[in-house]
Amino acid sequence: MSDLPTDRLLERDSEISALSAGVEGAGAGIGSFFVVIGPSGIGKTRLLGGARRMASEGGLRVLAANGSPFEREYAFGLVRQLFEGVLMRADDAEREQLLSGATAEVRHLFGLAFGLTAGEGAHSSEMNLFHGLFWLTVNICRRSPVLLAVDDLHWADDASLRFLAYLQRRLRDVRLMVVAATRPSDPAAAEALLDVVLTYPECRMLQPRPLSEAAVGIVLGEILGETPGPEVVSAYHAATGGNPLLLVETVRALGVRRAGPAGMDDARISEIGTRAVGRHVSVELGRLSPAARRTAEMVTVLGRHADVGHIAALTGLDYATVQSAVHELEDAHILSTESEDASVGFVHPVVRSAVYERLDPADRVRCHLAAAALLTREGRRLDEAAGHLLALPSPEPEHVAVLRQAAKQALERGTPESAHVYLAHALTGSMGQRERLDLLREAITAALLVDGEAALGHLDVALRLTHDPVETGELLCLSGLTKSLVGRSTTMIAQMVEAITRLPDDADDLRRGLEAALLDAPLAAVGAESVLRRIPELVRLPRSDTLNAALLECMIAGNECYAGDPRGAARAQAALRHPQMLEAAAKGATAGLLGHFTLMVGDPDRGIDAYGLLIAEVRRRGSSIALGTSLTCRAMGWLRKGELAEAENDLREVIQIRRISPVGTVLTMAQGLLAEVLVEQGRIDEASEILQEADLPAQLPQNGIFYTCLHARARILATGGFHDRALDAALAAGSRFAGHNGINPAIVAWRSQAALCLHALGEPDRARAYADEEIELAERWGAPDTIGRALRVAGLVGPPSTMPKLLERSVEVLRRSPARLELAHALVDLGACERRNGHLSVARALLYEGMEIAQRCHAVPLAKSARSELAATGARPRRSYLTGPESLTPSEARVVGLAADGLTNSQIAQRLYITVKTVEVHLSNAYQKLGIRRRHQLRDALPAQV
Q1: Cα 322 to chain centroid, rounded
Q2: What is the pLDDT, as a whole number, of residue 867?
Q3: Domain 13-206 listed as CATH 3.40.50.150
Q4: pTM score
């Protein structure tokens, strides 16, 4: 069986032109991403083949892969198809070069091919694997430009789809062209992930149209050897809708090669049309030898492992007979042997599906069992065998053991979706209660990373199977606040309180773990204030050195932080010293993440340093939720310091991670903070767009962190002069924050915003009340930047007679803090006050200092305001004087420091999880600020600490 009998791609000029431009671009170092989309048989595979030919002729290395409905649960299966051959054919020296640096993290994905021991390189996070795979791609492209050709993208595994989405945003300067083919919809597809790939702005969509009547006439003429009449052409066009594959197979099914067009009519063509491919396959297989039929069936089961040796092993046929059968199937246009390796494949996915559907269900199960056994005997990866076991209606005990082991390896290798699929299928088998409970525990662990509802389903089953109070407590502790996150806080609280009550006296450590999980409820959802009444008793617990005790301390500290209790910062600092805390937080322990947050709220410098260590560990071994949370909270610290570019970088990364992996409820917090960063930079329209993307409902759900978005909305509205609406938004932020027992203005300064709005609306008394309350709360918490901001706002909304003194106090306090942007605001406000009072020389000094800091923070509106005030004093300020090492942003300083130490741009990019282009931009900016032109001048231009 084949596609169009002609070698030409009929009526595909625009698609070929676009693909040709992509080939040229890849050769010139301009990456591109194309998706050919259309229904089955429209010619997607032929276009992909055309792209491969053009790429080969243009000097590109072609790496190809095919999605398969039978390998959807085989994590990174598509990725392995693309790269495994390259690594297998490389010599030792080349392979080491390809797998150097950040790429070393992906060795275990191809481990068995290179003699690595089981488990080597394991425990990588999925984001770290994406990072490593990207650099593997870059390393391959350094030798020559590359085409990645992926057919049937709709059947790709989730992990590979996420990698392609990750790759999309990093193509600009890579000598790479990606061309994928997919159907517009398929029930087996991961539609959400496909949408991420397809909706990427720079993804070029190619949508081949059905053939016209003229093109149908050309095809018929080439098949028949003579020109068909217009009535025949019209009949075939109407019956097949111009679908190339359906056209060819309809002609084949009607036997026109032998009979010619005579006697063909619309009714007969229409009757055959939609069933042509399946019928053709059945007819052709019926004409072939039994060995050929069995070979075709084995190829459908084996997938990419279908070579002559494996087919012979499963069918019991000798090698020569299988070879002969393969040739038979090639002649019948059913199989193709055109792959780079020795594997055999079908000429079209529709053919593969037709053959698979012919298999008797019982025979299908036997074939998959045999394939799993064969791959296991050969020492293949467990997930390859496990993929076949998923075809069993109910696994036997020996299969359950394989599935559990495959799930364990999948978790270690950063693919929790696959792990959960294996475990969920294992649970359909027969087993004793003890084994089922253990298996349910494993399934909960995997599902918590990918599907909270599924995790709770497993939990409910497990709780019904056990009456042991310790085991019940362990299960609830394992699931943590999942029920709260899906809107079941009341149920979660009741279950945990009962479990804690039932625990025996000798279960102290488990009790602390449960109490820690319970204290998470008020911070994740509103309406759980009753839990907070437990804190006084928990504070009096005797000292313990266990991890659960440290996690409980972190959770108490977090609630104290929200409540503005200064004891929280010291408590968190002590708890974070536990030797297992970094690992626990990296793996997503909410209490550990909250401990870091509390530390940052108390001291942004110390918190940012702690987050730096945590984020490095999360990137290597943690979850995307832990990474998103850590980046968001660190961004809050950067914002408080006035490092707006750093805050934006972290928050943009969170939003990009969200495209391909879950980040939990922290997304809305990240969006709100990013909007605030943009407001400080004067990018009001972008800030508004971010809040529109957040799409806050009128009635907020019980769970979720929404107060940062509401506060950002208030700031945007106030900037536009809509002070009444801004006041409503500020008060809404305060109400939502209070629902989490939130009082601390260091987390969200809604009272300051409300005071400024009320002052603008002509309500000074109410404005001063909010400002005075914020001063009191800020002084209780004790963070200088929070106190300084409260004093500044109090000065702005208070009587004119009190303004100078309050603003002076604000500047004095802020000089002792790391909050440079807040200091700039205070300096400019004080300078403006002194200018109005006629103290021009004092005003100029304050305004110059404030303007310089604002410029270094890239706070455009504040710098503009300072210049305006300076002009009013008679001064003529320079537009900008951002030079010297102190003008470098933290990101620029990191890049410059590594470059000065001798690292190449590529090595810097791999170490910092950024692109080479970003490194180049940072270095270019740094050269300008440092007044140098060459890399070797960096060391002399930097102070010792950079």
Answers
A1: 44
A2: 94
A3: no
A4: 0.87
